Amino acid sequence: FGAGAAVPDPGDFVWRAAGLLEAEPGLCDHLAGLLASGEIGGEGVSLAVDLLARAGTPAAMAAMRRALASTRLGGRDDYALLLQRMSLLDDPDEATVTLAATIRGAHGSASLVGGAAAYSIGAMAGKLAAAGHLGDAARWVAPLVTELATAQDTQAQAHLVGALGNAGLPEHPAAIAGFAASGDEAVRAAVASALQHGEGEPRARSALVLLSADPDAHVQAMALASLRDYQLGDDDARALVGSLAAGVPPTAAGDAVAVLAA
Length: 262
Fold this sequence. Notes:
262 residues; mainly alpha; 68% helix; elongated; disordered N terminus
């Protein structure tokens, strides 16, 4: 795939191409050069960045950083989506997180690009935490926690809540739950999704019960989906039954039944 942006069948090709990048580190830098120069265009750009993320080697991550930091990719309409390919990295390194943090700082968390960078930081921190490096993961997302505490822009709040949800660290659900009463449905939706990993925090459970009666059907459905992993006490169960009395979106009916049957 090149200037014409004809994209091959993404089946076996993706895995074979990613394996080749793993085996031949020099090809990673060559691919980054093609991306930065514009010799790869159209949908081929997304596929090339995907391949680097799936390879995930130090050479692949360095090439990915080079490409994402280039003005060529930075000027694309889908730049925010390209940045989120960093979330696919299985073993992200410090330099890649630093690039995401730099991009977030330059664009601001309220923007699509800054929000995408924040989401990626959270996802990469989550990968590190899953590998047992909780201290480093917490350090990576600490600036997001600090900003969320004072953020006034609702779009920034939604992005930062989503980013902390991606990280899935045990110290964040209480802070996330504090935004459940937001007047902005995008923020409430972000809270409902982010709290799927907050089952050990009572305030998270209460927030999701509250959101299960949200006037927005999308928020309500997300809250019920997240509640499936929670164990509800009698008071919470009664509150949930009461909140559902006004009705449940058809797409969330299965989640509602599962939550109450648990």
